[in-house]
């Protein structure tokens, strides 16, 4: 059996993504203000740097992808529990990507929560999701024994 290894973007890529997107938004807002701020304004660059750093740090802290590996004795027990917990959080099965089942919330909220990838093997499971969701799963009473 060939297992697919999914590598989520790391903390650096996530930081750069939020930093760059914030700067693009700031420059677009500046240009739509009728020319009050030009491209040569140092204030624009300072604002982009400060706000970009803040959003980059926050984005990297809460929205970076993490990989969790859990071990268990019976895969059926774990599958039933994780399915129940994910359903309670609003996730439904979205698709299959090789050996991973992809879960997503079917609403606009999914833009903020992201997708969850789950691969269950005989005695272990791999979960890939955003750090904020991983924290929720680790703090869940039903899953506490597995983490």
Biggest sheet: strand arrangement? 1-5-4-3-2
Strand content: 15-25%
Largest sheet: 5 strands, antiparallel
Number of strands: 5
User: In angstroms, what separates the terminal alpha carbons?
Assistant: 26 Å
Helix content: 40-55%
Q: Which series of helices and strands comes N to C?
A: HHEHEEHEEH
Compute the number of helices: 5
Mean pLDDT: 83
Given as residue ranges, the uncertain stretches (5+ residues, pLDDT < 50) are: none
* Shape call: elongated
Q: Helices and strands: which structural class?
A: alpha+beta
Report the radius of gyration as a whole number of Å. Answer: 20 Å
Based on the model shown, name its key terms.
single chain; 147 residues; alpha+beta; five-stranded antiparallel sheet; 5 strands; 47% helix; 20% strand; elongated
